[in-house]
Structure formats: C-alpha cells, structure tokens
Amino acid sequence: MNRFIKGTALSLLAAATAVTSADAAEIMVSSNIATSTTWTADNTYNLQDQIYVLPGATLTIEAGVVVASDTTINGGGGLAITNGAQIFVKGTQSQPVIMTSKSDVATWTADGSHPTGGDPTTGTWRASANEWGNLTIMGDGYISENATIGNTAVPSASNVASMEGLIAAMPGDTNILYGGGNDADDSGSINHLSIRYGGRVIGVGDELNGLSLGALGRETDISHVEIMNNVDDGVEIWGGCANLKYLSIWNIGDDSLDIDQGYRGKIQFVLIVQGYSVNDSQGSGVGDNCIEHDGAENSHWQPVTTTSIYNATVIGQPVIGDGGTAWRDNARVQHRNSIFMDLGERLVRFDDVDGDGAQGYGHMGTLSWADTWTTDYTATSTVNPFPTDPSEFYKAQTSGKLAEITDSVFFRNLNGSAYTEAINVGVLPGNATNNNVLAASMDQPIVSITRGAPVTTVVGTILPVVSLDPRPANDALTSVNSAPADGFYTPANYRGAFAPGETWLAGWTASTAYGFTPDSSPWSLEGCAKEGIFGQPSLVGSGTLATGSVNSMALVNANPSAVSALFVGFAGGSTPFKGGILKPLPFFDFFTLNTLANGTRTIPFLMPAGVPSGFELWFQWAIQDPTAFPAVSLSNAVVGTTP
Fold it and tell me: Which of 49, 330, 435, 563 has its CB surrounded by the most CB atoms within 10 Å?
C-alpha cells in the first residue's frame, strides 16, 4: 500500500462557506405548530412554552440547527410531537441538531461563524438540569396501561395513556395522549440529536425525561441520540415497537434507559455513563438504575415488554448506583453482547413490582420470575392475549429465552451482592451456554476510564467520569455470537457499544465537546452497498493517521478464504466510492488478496510524510461471493482523516 501512497501528489479542496452570526436570527417559538414547518440552520430556536406539533403537521429540523431555550427557575419550553404528527431531525455527524439551554450555549467558545455566536463543538460541563423541558414523541402503537379509565387488559386500539410530564390544557385534551392499535405507526425519524440539561419539573414525581417515546411504531427511525444531564430518566419508552440504535446517555438523575408498558422494539449500541445532574434525591438528580424494564401495567395485561438489547456498554456508579438491570412487572428482556462494569448494586436487580400499583411476576397465571429465565422466547402469555396470532406482535426476540444476559462481560462490580441474583437465574457462572465472562481485575473491557474527585451529594458519594475511551479491550474485543442480520441489527462480533478502534461519539456529542470522550474517531463507516451471505462484511480501522504512525484496517465478518480486492484512494473531501460502480477518486489503486479462513483480514501500514491535514484516505473491499448474485459484494467504505 505504501508504494501507492508515497507517489501521490495532493491538493486541498476549497473550504465550505460558513453562515456568520450576522446572518442568523433567534426565532422565539411561542405557539403550537399546526402546519408543516422547517427549522433551518441559519437561525436558532428558543422554545418559550410547551410547544406541540399538532396532528397532521410535520416539523423538519435541518442539520446544524441549535434549539436553545431560555433558562428559567422551573425550566424553559419543551417540544412535544402529538399522535398523528411527525418530526424529522436531520442531523449529521459533522452537523448535529442540538437541543439545550442558553446557559449551555453560554459556555461555548466564541465563534462568529455559527448562528449562536459560539462553537457547538466546545463547551463546559456543569452540574445542572431542569433548564428547559425535553423532546416528547407520541405515537399510535399498542400499549398496556391500566391507569386510564376504559382501558382493557386485552390489547385494544382504544387503549391510551397520558404522557408523563405533560399537562392537559383542558379536560379531554388529546394532545397529551399516546397509544392505539397501529404498530406500524411512523412518527418520523431522528438522526444525530444531542439533548442537554433538560427535564423540567412539573411537580413531585412528575418530571420530564430527556427523550420520552410513547407508543411509537416500527416505521419510526431513531438513531444517534445523546442525552447529557437530565433531572429524570434519560430515555423512557412506553409501549409500541420502535427500534433504537446508537444511544449515548450520561449523568442522568433517575434511570438512564427505562422501558415500560409493553415495549416490543429492538435496541442496539447503547452507552450508559451513570452519574448525577443536580444534587438532589436519587431519582430526581442522582442516578438510579442503569437500565430499568417494566413489563405491563398491570403485569397480567398485554402487551408485555418483550425486547432484545444488543451491544450495550454500561458504566455504573460504584458507591451509590443502583441496579445494572432492574426487573419488574413480568418484563421479558434479552441482554446480549454487552459490558456491565462499576455497578454500585446488583447486575440483576429483582424489583418484582414498580410501586405504581402493578403486580409482579406470576400474577394471575403469568410466568414466575424463575420460569421467565428458562422459558423459550416462542412462549407467549395465554393471559389476556392478543385476539389474533400473538407472534405477530412479539417480533423483537428470535432466539433464546424470554429473559437472559448472554455473551457479555462483567468487570469491577464490587458490591458484595452484585452477582447474587445473577447466579440465581443462571447468568453466572459463565459457561458454554451463556458465554458470559467475569473479567479478571487486570482485564478492563474498555480502553480507559478516569474518575474525578469525589462529589458529596444528599444521597452519598458520586465518583464522576471525567474521561472515557469506551472502545473495547480484552474480553470485549470479540464475542461468541452476534446480532442477527435482520435489516435492523448490525451483526457485530464484539461486546459493548463500540467496534475495536472505533467510536461513533466523535463530532456530534456533548461528551466530545466537553472533553469526556475522544474528539475524533480514527475511522468512520460510510454505509454498506450489499450484505454478503456470510454475515455483513464491514471494515474496522485503528490508529490516528498521523505521519509515521502504524495504522491498521481490518475486514471482519466476510466470506472465508475468498478472493477479494482492496481499493484505496485519497480525496480532499467526502467522495465515497461505494455502490455497484466504483467512483474514482483523484488518486486510487487496488490490491488483490484472500480473506482468512475465519472471514477476516488485517492490513497494517505506515502513513507517509507530506500528506496535508484534512485529507481523507478511503478504503473499500470487494469480496467474492459465488453463492450470491452478483458474485462480488462490496464491503463498507471506510474513511480516515489526517489530523
């Protein structure tokens, strides 16, 4: 590869034109949105009240938009998408959409090229929340909620619930209701959205989550969402079956991820870093459970929460954090290919009931707690069942048991009872059946973590995470199994939320802006042209691309012992060359080689001197696949940028 790179002459492309602060306007949003509206990146938007996007209307938020609300004593405005409306958040890695408070924006480094007057890739973390509301989205999927008069235990399209943290404008106000009978509901899409310092407090025990999702259907797309600091839960999901991917949840004042009321979607790639947002009680400022799952309300109602969560990296609070996973009300959850470390309490916390009047496991003929861990995923409850084929409504689980934690690594969970319940239900000891690993004290499963000075709260001592490289190490570098290639999940042969040598946090998150996580990813994946018959081939890069440094690029999950071709090229800007026909770059070359018997191949190389900053080195791999048509399928394109 060096023979190609060293002989290349390079020139930079012209810089893109930036919007200056003089061109920008602050838009005060003070009334509900009744007609389809687009928010553009040359303005900032200040939510003056609880704003509703009304049924039939669509709100589109372009890449780079900053929604910065005034900070008030009890939190500024919020945004709620009603059942029948849609939202499209079109952020990108280089231009995320940020929803925050003006107090956060005030910490950004002055930069006249941005509409806010500050550079959104900078900022200073503060122990704060409740500075504005949140983003709430309400859909039309099935839920189980027994608190609403008229709802039935048997699933019904007429079952609805009032959204937590929203206040009815009048008796019978439907703008705060979610639920219905359409699991294919499409409430829009979210991509690269950072939500910070939210969680308006309405009253005691009535607080807004960072992102509230009520009864969203499977046609709703949610990917790359960050919640940084919130007074209540980070992400809470009530019912429906929307799928979520790439979630980063930090310093949450209650549960980091909370699922409830019969949620039946899929989740993959989740980073949870437990801490605190404000010095208040646990559940209203100081972190509670890392992942909490409630089944149904009441627990013998249907639907019941039935889901699979793949590739989570869960980092708890070692002194006062609660459960790594908390289980209530007949919830059925599979945790796979994950990392659980530094938990303050139990890996498996059996709460049984949620305190809201619902009953626990085994109520009214449902499965007992123990039986849930030993019963195959194909078993559906015969208590208050769906009137038609129940398997049509429970699609997230496709193998294994109804409740399980498998193919995961556990590290430095030092509470004396950390594994008591995990042992009772068969999570530990690790064996060939569950493929779990209790890591040795020297085998940290992530690259690095640094905690700051202890913080004394009203609950106890917090050890805040001030620096984190969450990429996998040791036992997390490989997994025995991977998620199925079903069109949503990515078959990832590692444990935790990040591929070896790669972070998807760079460029768009507050964790990067505040200096908690690496400010650049050595490589970024640019999509896949075609999935191969043998899993989904993908490229993984490592290294910094600095002159003289040894870098590597690895193909994984490809056809074994197959003839392949590696295409390489430089570009002065984003010029992907994927698809059925390769698009030539200013300079490119290719090499032929075979994949190994395990479907991998790694190429180390030395970055030559003289490459200007900001140039992108592109890779694409074509793999022979004689069982498919066409016979050659393309792997992901991968790009690394010179510093």
Answer: 330
